[in-house]
Amino acid sequence: MNEERRVGVDIGGTFTDIVTIHDGEVSVSKTPSTPTDPDEGVINGLGKVSERDDFALSSIDFLAHGTTVATNAVLEGEWADTALVTTEGFRDVLEIGRQARPDIYDFQVEKPTPVVERDRRYEVRERLDERGNVLVELDEDGVRDLAAELVEADVDSVAISLLYAFEDDTHEKRVRDILVEEGLDATYSLSSSVLPEIREYERTLTTALNGSLKPVMDRYIGRLESRVEEKGVGAELKIMQSNGGIITADIARERPVNTLLSGPAGGVQGATYVSGLSGESNLITMDMGGTSCDVSLVEDGTPLVSTDTDIGDYPVSVPTIDIHTVGAGGGSIAWIDAGGALRVGPKSAGADPGPICYGRGGERPTITDANLLLGRIDPGAFLSGELDVELADVRRLFAENIADPLDMSVTEAAQGVLDVANANMARALRVVSVERGYDPREFGLVAFGGAGPLHACKLAEELDIPKVIVPRTAGVLSALGLLISDILYDYSTSRVRPWDAVAPEDLQAQFDEFAAEGNDRLAAERLAAEAMQYERTVDLRYAGQAFELSVPVPDGDLTDSAMETIAERFHERHRQRYGHAYPEEPIELVTIRLRARGVVETPDLRPAETGGSVESAVIDTREVVYDGTPTETPIYDRSALPVGASFDGPAVVGGVESTVVIHPDQRVSVDDFGSLHVEVEP
Hints:
The protein is an alpha+beta fold. The strands form nine sheets. Strands 13, 14, 15, 20, 23, 24, 31, 34 and 35 form a nine-stranded mixed sheet that branches. Strands 3-2-1-4-11-12 form a six-stranded mixed sheet. It has a four-stranded parallel sheet with strand order 6-5-9-10, with helices on both faces. It comes from Haloferax namakaokahaiae. InterPro entries: ACX-like_C (IPR049517), ATPase_NBD (IPR043129), Hydant_A_N (IPR008040), Hydantoinase_A (IPR002821), Oxoprolinase-like (IPR045079). This is Hydantoinase/oxoprolinase family protein. Residues 503-678 form the Acetophenone carboxylase-like C-terminal domain.
């Protein structure tokens, strides 16, 4: 594999990141994103890196992509004209939703716009009971009448979500077949395929979202595939899923709802892998890019996965790396609210025009501008000198918009912007740790993204996190994550039963069925049998609860003893998560899950020996402001720091795609893989 040329491309709100691995060497690059035409940024980036590194695009053997196309479509409501077909009486499930409200005391709160409006929601006569037994046969003549109506409506996509279809999908498949027979030319999404699980609202919503995104993702992937083929790339395009695994472009077209956190998931995977190389397995990851900051938690080397994730106003219940996002990125705009308080974000200057310091016409102060004013970023080396930075313009506009209205100096205003932004990010870090029963003092903070290493050391200090890890490719870690992520396929089905009524052989049979499907998928990707792994879990709850916990299932054929072990694990997890458990209470099975994993060979990320010393890596000194105090600070060239080096803060370490700010009283060491380890004083 070392001779392969593997390329990962991740599109962010501000920059498109490209990582290339060839003959064990890692090459990184950034190019401005093109929000109105995302594939243009991909093509620009590929052209830039191939010209710089002198290789033909036809020599690319593997091409993986992290995309925000599906996410942006949901956030902006720009999806396809979709029809929803439900069981008679359930037309308004999307409208009714759940009791949960963003503010229970706000009588004026507005519900989110339904993914499918009421005039595009249709009913068919049929009914199953909770065990999948037929109570009312499917009215096929009614479905044929519906087909004529849908043909007249000229919809692009059809989502089919019938009651209890996860117990028996026969009716859903028959509805689809009849619509096809009657000439309805559209894409189809079935709940029994997209999300065969309980909870009518979430299942219907996720299916409707998948249906509304299929034409959008199909057009984007088709356009991108055509353009890379025109450039001579012969490698099959792969797409990152929200669960942290790679799938083929064809599967992504079929299941776009599984790509809603594609880019952030790649970052968590990259952070987990790189930190694991140096023996760090309990991590809080922090990906701060141009528009947002994504935080997640990794326990024992495994990112936490959730099936309860909000994308904008919509709860999406597909397996997703548990990521919490706040609107704090390098491009987040600083502003003063009606009460005269300083606020930062969530609006972002994005890639165009970007922060003031990009020199592209931006006039509103951002976090990046504040870092520049405080000496943390070198204007002469900003993004490898590709941007024309005018420090005087930054200072003037910062004064006009923030400092003068608040009667502060520009330096005080810039420090205030960072303090507010850090407070927002600290809250996000607490959400994924303290609020979920984890002590931050037992974790390391992995900082990446273009802006993450600028803020991480201060955040770790505030949260008593003992160590910050900054990978060598921190600024493009999401793109690197695409190249080390395994191929993953998730399978699930709800089977709500008392746990003591579940026979081990029946549970084993369902796992065997899932494993056979996963084996077929992985074999189609030409993976050897030894590279295939299968991870089994069940979602359990105490009888009467409305929520459940995912519990790992022991390897091997299931026996009565294994079932007891699973129950014990559930009690332990419940106690860890909520602080209490009830071993005498009856348990209920909710959902059966299997993950089919195709393990990829990972590259050697050891950097080439620099042959230099810590002293020779110091390229400059300049005044940097820490907590309002100007301090003369050595500036290090990260590429010149030798493996095994160590030095004390304060320091600024500049790299090609990110800058690390080390505060006073912190100590830095460089591990064998070029990652910086910053020891933070409690």
